[in-house]
Amino acid sequence: MRTAHLGRFLTSVSLLPFSHAPVLPTKFPKSPRSFLHCLRSFRAQTLSLASSMASENVSTAAPDDSKHGFSRPEMYKENLAGTVDAYDRHVFVCYKKHEVWPPRVEASESDPLPKLLATTVKSRKNDMTIKTKITICEAREEAGFLDGDVLIFPGMIKYRGLTESNIDSFVEDVMVNGKPWSAGVQEEIAGSHVFVCAHGSRDVRCGVCGPVLIEKFNREIELRGLKDQVFVWACSHVGGHKYAGNVIIYSPGLDGKIMGHWYGYVTPNDVPEFLDQHIAKGEVIRHLWRGQMGPSVEEVKGTDDQKVPNGELTDKGKNENVGGCCQGANGVSCCMTANFEKNKGIGETTEAHKKQGHQSSWSGPLFEERNVRIAVGVFGILAAATVAYKIYRRSG
């Protein structure tokens, strides 16, 4: 009798809303030994489910576009200009695919390369004086960019083969002393490079908007025959999740100098304008502009806000609040300090964009709400199975 009741109870647990919930038989064995075997099988399936979710970062339900996508209510609610901290160089480290990045890729025990780089840079922060951002970007083996390859802007430099064993020399040579890396071969990169935040484990909005924008960029690039001139990358958290889609473009301006411009609230409908106006003509898209490489908007108030080094500002949007634009660094700055302690939540405000006390930032993510829901659900199943087993043992 009690075995039957426990069987029905566990069956109800197995019907929890998971796409791959543990499966229990419709009829339970009556003998204690057989029932115990069934319970252990159920427990093993549950643990397997937990492991799968952790490794693949599976969401229990499709994200709601009206809540997390391009039609969410918060779109276009805030002025964007001035929401980028001042910096003079951007270092991107190629590492795996964006779908497998953990929420805090720079602190993950299972991702030693980003973690060791973050730790090393932090330990040398007092030796670095120029503001630099570090971001993870997706490795693209088909394009010749492998795990451990490093891209440096505005220098348009590429280094291959950063590993845990040579991080110290990279930081010492390139970051601190501004010299070519003694353990690597310096290569030049060309063209325009578009980085789109697609760090879904950090924030659902970036996970929803980023991949769609990347697909749209690649489609429009192919239509224009620009596959050898414009390159699109998925990148990790860059700050300002509420402005998703977030896009950073490093491309030559009218004077040939490389500039980095940040955009927010970008939708697929904006992609042709970025290719035809920003990249082709050097015109900054004013109503989506967040800031650029160089001094922050606050640091250059009073300068001419009608032009930026990359060309004329276009004004095709509703947002008129664009502050002064500024000339960024054009050489390779190889020094920086770090501030890895600032971890912003999903509800980050404009306070997160004020001038930082340190000279560098790592694009470091936090746990996402959906991961918490998954964990609670999985542990709930385990707890239910454990309680059922204890009840069964007491029943004799």
From TrEMBL:
Q: Which InterPro entries match?
A: Aim32/Apd1-like, Thioredoxin-like_sf
Name of the featured protein: Altered inheritance of mitochondria protein 32
Print the keywords alphabetically: Signal
Secretion signal, residue range per the UniProt entry: 1-21
Query: Which superkingdom, per the lineage?
Result: Eukaryota
